[in-house]
Structures are given as structure tokens and as C-alpha cells.
Amino acid sequence: MTAMPEVSRKLDINLHDTSVGIWQDDPNDPTFRSEIFEPLTAWMRRRGWRVTADPEVLKRHRCISKGYRVAERGDLRARGECHGRSIEVTFWSERAVQENRNGRRYDFDKRDRAPYLDRLRMDLEARRILAWLGARAELTIRERRTPRCGAGAGELPAAAWIEQNARASGHYAPELGRARYTNGDRCRATKDGGLLEHGSVAWFIDRKGRVLRGRAFYSLNDRWAIQVGRFGVTFASAFEMFTAPPPELRRKRNEEARRKQLEREIGRAVRGEDFERAALLKRIAFGSEPVYRIWSRKNDCYYGPQYCGYTADMTFAGRYTREEAEAEVLRVPHILSLVTPAGKHLRAEDFAAPSILMAAE
Asked: pTM for the complete prediction?
């Protein structure tokens, strides 16, 4: 029988949700990536995972791409990162309920969002990684399972959930009952000029543009956890909140979302050759003002609606007033151009001559 090699390496393992964090205390060991990260990805490849370089890192930061890998196997996906003496491997399911528009990889609570069988597969992969590491190092395993906020079994009411998360933070100051304020009063300054206090009542605008009321608890930097009702928790920055009720509480503050939707409907009407509807929607969104587009010479694309994203399709490009388009082009003059209603591209230096812009229209 072949004797097992003596294990001299020590690793700390942190388990959270679907992530396996690997930490090595010895900062002077240069073999961490070559003896742990690279063999780990090769072992996953032998087990049927399709492992490749992270395409985004390879495209934008080729010099560090050796420390980033993505993998797929069936409906499961994984990403591995190696930074100095730490490695993190994160799993997610392509059949999970998606909330983040950038992809399931960026969603919180990846395990709870995944189908039951995929949750079991991710748990199995984590156990296999631990077994593989255990044959090569002495492991100290810490598992952090934070109860969710809610009314279900094993879940915590909002106040208890906020308190538990605050105490688990390394920034928690027991004598204050919270983290210390950073940057003086800047982390407490609200949109209406007031100052928040830990546990005070505040008003904020949710994702749908509605004004809601809650109790604010300091988290870190300028972020505050807001208790809404008994089981609701959300987060907002101080500068997004109010210490007094804002005017017109029943009015939705969804101007950006409304305009985005109107611009999408204009594009659909133009694509369907319903020009009367397109003209009506344009009058609703912009009145009688002419609309402009913004062209990025770097990306060879138009700006999307409300400065979000890019598109090569002029029909669905973002529409802007003259003041909005000029201000954005002047902000990045070496990359952007203004596109007039007649389709002429103008650079920032052309704005000094109003006659040129008027002639282009």
C-alpha cells in the first residue's frame, strides 16, 4: 500500500451560500496557485466540467486572466478566482429564478433560487471540493448560514435580522450598538438636508418609484438597512432618503422608468411602421422638441435609453433632448458624438458654433 504524503499546508475554508472560500495564512508561499488553484480546475475538468478562461477578464485584463476560470456542466455554472493567497469558487444554476438583470451569477441567495435537484448537485460539488482539498492540506472549515428575513420557519423578523447582521460585521462597535459612522456627517446626510440617526424613522423611494416609510439602521459607509413593516428589509444610501415626508406622497417618482418605456414603445411602433402611434408617443415623451441620439465612437454604437447600454439599431437607440445630448457629449468629448434628427454626427467642438447645429437640423 502506498503511504499518503504528509500534509503540511493549512487552509481555512469559508462556506457561504454556494461559495467555497479558500484562504492560506502563509503569505510567503508562492505555490498556492500552482499547487491548489490550477490542479483544482484541472480536476474539475477531468470530472466532466467544461473549464475555460473567463471571457470578460481575458478580453479586458489579459495579464491577470490566469487567475480567473468559468466552468459549466449541464445546468450548473461555476466561477473560480485566485487572488494571492485566497481562492473562491462560486456555483449557480441556469434554471434558477433570476432577479439581477446582469445574470444569475450576480443574484443573492443562489442556492435558494435554484431548483431542488440543482441545489443538491451544488452541495455535492462543494463536498467533493472539500474532500479533494482535505487530501492535500489540513482544513479549518467555517460555515456561515445566515437566516433569511421573513415569516417562515427558520426565518427572522426584520428587526432581529438587521441586528444579527450588524453584530456579525467586523465593523460592529458594541458600545454604540452599530458600526461607527464614516466620513463624518456625510454618511448620514439625506436628500432633504437632514441627518439620519440609527433607528430613526425615514422615508425612501422604492424600485417602483413609490414613497415608503421605514426605520433606518446604519450599515456601513453611506448604506442604511431599512425595516419596512415586521418582515420587510431593504437597503438605501443616505442621499436617497428623507428625514421628513417628501411632498406629494402619492405621486410615483418613476420618471426614468416611464421615459424608458415610452422610448421602447416608440421603437416598436417605428419597427411596425405605425408612424401615427410613434408620433403620438414622441409628443407624450418630448412634446414638440426635436430628439437627438448619442454615438459612441469607441463602441461603434448608439447610447441606449436613459444612458443605459448600447445598441447598433438606431430605431431602439436612446432619444435625448438637445441639452441632454450636448451635456453628455461634452462630458466625454473624445469618445462621443451628437447625432441630429437628420442623422448628422457632430463632435463637441461643433457646439461652439450654433449656426452649424441649426443647419444640421
From this structure: 0.60
